């Protein structure tokens, strides 16, 4: 990246936004101008630890920064991102992109109109295990994903499809180049008013089938995906950042060949650096606003199927 630091800010310094601020403060290409949060005490604490100014409204950043990370509750994504996009500020918006598809469409249209970088924070795209899949994934036939967590109390402003499952939806949509034929799903609330456990089956028009399980009431944390294709069987462990590739034995020979690829990195730091590179070079982000919109559309479709099924049972 060329000379000159990019002036950045972080809006929302709860659990995730605080980490954004800490990493920006250490990235040489960034100058962390400030952090903003409606909780003044928390804002001042994070600002002190990252040696920047505390701000109490996101609008105070306008005119001060070139780019921002937005890590506020989902219901506030649309308005805050809109204010920055209108001002020509490049935006990294945490997932899910917005609460509704219409809001996502409006933000994407605005980003195109203003010619700004608009990246969505689908963090797993930067996991080292996925880097090992480059050139290996061709035409998946079957995908199974498991994203399970113990109940933490965080993220319950949205249901589990938007909190956890959307990560895997985004990854699956990025590797299966096909339209969706239909979606089947089951799920239910358990520890919150929202859906806490969900399982979806996505059938694509090219024949690929994806089974996606997400839970925030599990006994242990699991982040895994399996991909079956004609010439290989891939097993991804996002927590270990490992990829196991099993291939058939060569023609005329029994058995199989198994290779393990481990590429440990810091996905959030990689995400922020990729965002800054897009800001500097004016190139499309790794995860575009359109990517975020597609993932949201499918997640909401799954939630709708579950909701109708629950009403049918009730």
Would you mind describing this structure in some detail?
The protein is α/β, with parallel strands linked by helices. It has 2 domains: 6-123 and 268-288, Rossmann fold, CATH 3.40.50.720; 125-264 and 299-313, Dihydrodipicolinate Reductase, domain 2 (2-Layer Sandwich), CATH 3.30.360.10. It has 8 helices and 14 strands. It has an 8-stranded mixed sheet. It starts with 5 loop residues before the first strand and ends with a helix.
In short:
The chain is α/β, with parallel strands linked by helices. It is 34% helix and 29% strand. The protein has helices spanning 15-26, 40-50, 77-86, 101-114, 128-131, 160-175, 267-281, 289-313, and strands at 6-11, 30-36, 53-55, 67-70, 90-94, 118-121, 142-148, 180-189, 195-204, 209-215, 222-229, 232-237, 242-248, 256-262.
Order of helices and strands: EHEHEEHEHEHEHEEEEEEEHH
> Overall pLDDT, averaged?
94
The total strand number stands at 14
**CATH homology superfamily of the largest domain:** Dihydrodipicolinate Reductase, domain 2
List the uncertain runs. none
Q: Kindly name the structural category.
A: alpha/beta
CATH topology of the largest domain: Dihydrodipicolinate Reductase, domain 2
The percentage of residues in β strands lies in 25-35%
Helix fraction?
25-40%
In terms of topology, how is this protein built?
Blueprint: E1 6-11, H1 15-26, E2 30-36, H2 40-50, E3 53-55, E4 67-70, H3 77-86, E5 90-94, H4 101-114, E6 118-121, H5 128-131, E7 142-148, H6 160-175, E8 180-189, E9 195-204, E10 209-215, E11 222-229, E12 232-237, E13 242-248, E14 256-262, H7 267-281, H8 289-313
Parallel strand pairs: 1-2, 1-4, 2-3, 4-5, 5-6, 7-10
Antiparallel strand pairs: 7-11, 8-9, 9-10, 11-12, 12-13, 13-14
Helix pairs in contact: 1-2, 3-4, 4-8, 6-8
